[in-house]
Protein backbone atom coordinates (compact mmCIF):
# COMPACT_ATOMS: atom_id res chain seq x y z
CA UNK A 1 0.00 0.00 0.00
CA UNK A 2 2.84 2.41 0.86
CA UNK A 3 4.61 1.67 -2.42
CA UNK A 4 1.33 2.28 -4.27
CA UNK A 5 1.09 5.72 -2.67
CA UNK A 6 4.65 6.55 -3.65
CA UNK A 7 4.12 5.37 -7.22
CA UNK A 8 0.82 7.19 -7.68
CA UNK A 9 2.14 10.41 -6.16
CA UNK A 10 5.23 10.25 -8.37
CA UNK A 11 3.02 10.11 -11.47
CA UNK A 12 1.25 13.23 -10.18
CA UNK A 13 4.60 14.96 -9.72
CA UNK A 14 5.56 14.13 -13.30
CA UNK A 15 2.31 15.57 -14.69
CA UNK A 16 2.65 18.72 -12.58
CA UNK A 17 6.30 19.15 -13.64
CA UNK A 18 5.33 18.96 -17.31
CA UNK A 19 2.50 21.41 -16.63
CA UNK A 20 5.03 23.78 -14.99
CA UNK A 21 7.31 23.40 -18.03
CA UNK A 22 4.48 24.33 -20.41
CA UNK A 23 3.45 27.33 -18.30
CA UNK A 24 7.02 28.59 -18.05
CA UNK A 25 7.35 28.30 -21.83
CA UNK A 26 4.12 30.28 -22.27
CA UNK A 27 5.24 33.00 -19.85
CA UNK A 28 8.69 33.21 -21.45
CA UNK A 29 7.10 33.81 -24.85
CA UNK A 30 4.33 36.21 -23.85
CA UNK A 31 6.19 39.12 -25.50
CA UNK A 32 7.54 37.22 -28.51
CA UNK A 33 6.81 39.35 -31.55
CA UNK A 34 6.30 38.11 -35.09
CA UNK A 35 5.35 39.80 -38.29
CA UNK A 36 1.62 40.32 -38.67
CA UNK A 37 1.76 37.94 -41.65
CA UNK A 38 3.14 35.03 -39.57
CA UNK A 39 1.67 32.84 -36.86
CA UNK A 40 2.20 34.01 -33.30
CA UNK A 41 3.64 31.78 -30.58
CA UNK A 42 0.94 29.26 -29.64
CA UNK A 43 0.48 28.63 -25.92
CA UNK A 44 0.98 25.05 -24.75
CA UNK A 45 -1.54 23.19 -22.59
CA UNK A 46 -0.90 19.83 -20.91
CA UNK A 47 -3.59 17.17 -21.17
CA UNK A 48 -3.65 14.54 -18.40
CA UNK A 49 -5.53 11.27 -18.04
CA UNK A 50 -5.94 8.58 -15.41
CA UNK A 51 -3.86 5.43 -15.66
CA UNK A 52 -5.49 2.08 -14.99
CA UNK A 53 -9.05 0.96 -15.46
CA UNK A 54 -12.07 0.67 -13.17
CA UNK A 55 -11.10 0.58 -9.51
CA UNK A 56 -7.46 -0.12 -10.31
CA UNK A 57 -5.88 3.32 -10.06
CA UNK A 58 -2.26 3.59 -11.18
CA UNK A 59 -2.01 7.38 -11.10
CA UNK A 60 -2.03 9.89 -13.95
CA UNK A 61 -0.07 10.49 -17.10
CA UNK A 62 0.34 13.20 -19.70
CA UNK A 63 -1.81 12.23 -22.67
CA UNK A 64 -0.55 15.06 -24.83
CA UNK A 65 0.42 18.67 -25.23
CA UNK A 66 -2.14 20.81 -27.05
CA UNK A 67 -1.21 24.09 -28.68
CA UNK A 68 -3.48 27.08 -28.37
CA UNK A 69 -4.47 29.62 -30.97
CA UNK A 70 -1.62 30.93 -33.16
CA UNK A 71 -3.67 33.86 -34.50
CA UNK A 72 -2.30 36.13 -31.77
CA UNK A 73 -3.03 39.80 -31.12
CA UNK A 74 -2.37 42.39 -33.80
CA UNK A 75 -0.71 45.51 -32.37
CA UNK A 76 0.14 48.75 -34.13
CA UNK A 77 3.89 49.35 -33.67
CA UNK A 78 5.15 51.09 -36.83
CA UNK A 79 8.69 51.51 -35.42
CA UNK A 80 9.16 47.79 -34.71
CA UNK A 81 11.61 46.11 -37.12
CA UNK A 82 9.10 43.27 -37.76
CA UNK A 83 6.19 45.60 -38.55
CA UNK A 84 4.49 45.03 -41.86
CA UNK A 85 3.85 47.80 -44.41
CA UNK A 86 0.83 48.98 -42.38
CA UNK A 87 2.88 49.10 -39.13
CA UNK A 88 1.38 46.04 -37.41
CA UNK A 89 3.07 43.20 -35.53
CA UNK A 90 1.64 40.12 -33.87
CA UNK A 91 1.94 39.07 -30.21
CA UNK A 92 0.82 35.75 -28.71
CA UNK A 93 -2.70 35.68 -27.33
CA UNK A 94 -1.59 34.60 -23.85
CA UNK A 95 -3.38 35.86 -20.76
CA UNK A 96 -0.68 36.44 -18.14
CA UNK A 97 -3.09 36.36 -15.18
CA UNK A 98 -4.43 32.98 -16.31
CA UNK A 99 -0.89 31.66 -16.69
CA UNK A 100 0.06 32.86 -13.20
CA UNK A 101 -3.06 31.21 -11.73
CA UNK A 102 -2.19 27.96 -13.48
CA UNK A 103 1.40 28.30 -12.27
CA UNK A 104 0.25 28.48 -8.65
CA UNK A 105 -2.08 25.49 -9.10
CA UNK A 106 0.68 23.42 -10.71
CA UNK A 107 3.15 24.34 -7.95
CA UNK A 108 0.64 23.41 -5.23
CA UNK A 109 -0.12 20.10 -6.93
CA UNK A 110 3.57 19.29 -7.22
CA UNK A 111 4.14 20.18 -3.56
CA UNK A 112 1.15 18.08 -2.43
CA UNK A 113 2.41 15.03 -4.30
CA UNK A 114 5.92 15.54 -2.89
CA UNK A 115 4.42 15.67 0.62
CA UNK A 116 2.56 12.39 0.00
CA UNK A 117 5.80 10.73 -1.07
CA UNK A 118 7.62 12.05 2.00
CA UNK A 119 4.89 10.85 4.36
CA UNK A 120 4.74 7.42 2.71
CA UNK A 121 8.53 7.14 2.96
CA UNK A 122 8.43 8.07 6.64
CA UNK A 123 5.68 5.48 7.26
CA UNK A 124 7.72 2.82 5.49
CA UNK A 125 10.81 3.67 7.55
CA UNK A 126 8.72 3.55 10.73
CA UNK A 127 7.36 0.12 9.76
CA UNK A 128 10.92 -1.18 9.26
CA UNK A 129 11.99 0.01 12.74
CA UNK A 130 8.93 -1.65 14.32
CA UNK A 131 9.94 -4.94 12.75
CA UNK A 132 13.48 -4.63 14.17
CA UNK A 133 12.33 -4.53 17.82
Briefly say what this structure is:
By secondary structure, the protein is of the alpha+beta class. It has one domain.
Distance between the termini: 22 Å
Order of helices and strands: HEEEEEH
* Beta strand %: 15-25%
Largest sheet: 3 strands, antiparallel
Widest sheet, order of strands: 1-5-4
Oligomer: single chain
If helices are DSSP runs of H or I spanning 4 or more residues, what is the number of helices? 2
Unreliable runs? none
Structural summary, described in words:
The chain is α+β, with helices and mostly antiparallel strands and 133 residues long. The protein has one domain (2-30, 41-70, 95-132). 48% of the residues lie in helices and 20% in strands. The chain contains 2 helices and 5 strands, in the order αβββββα. It has helices at 2-28, 96-132, and strands spanning 34-35, 44-51, 59-67, 73-76, 88-91. The strands form 2 sheets. A 3-stranded antiparallel β-sheet has the order 1-5-4, with no helix packed on it. Strands 2-3 form a two-stranded antiparallel sheet. A hairpin with a 7-residue loop joins strand 2 and strand 3 (59-67). Helix 1 runs antiparallel to helix 2. It is elongated, with a radius of gyration of 22 Å. The mean pLDDT is 91.
Record keyword descriptors for this entry:
elongated, 3-stranded antiparallel beta sheet, 5 strands, alpha+beta, 2 helices, two-stranded antiparallel ribbon, 133 residues
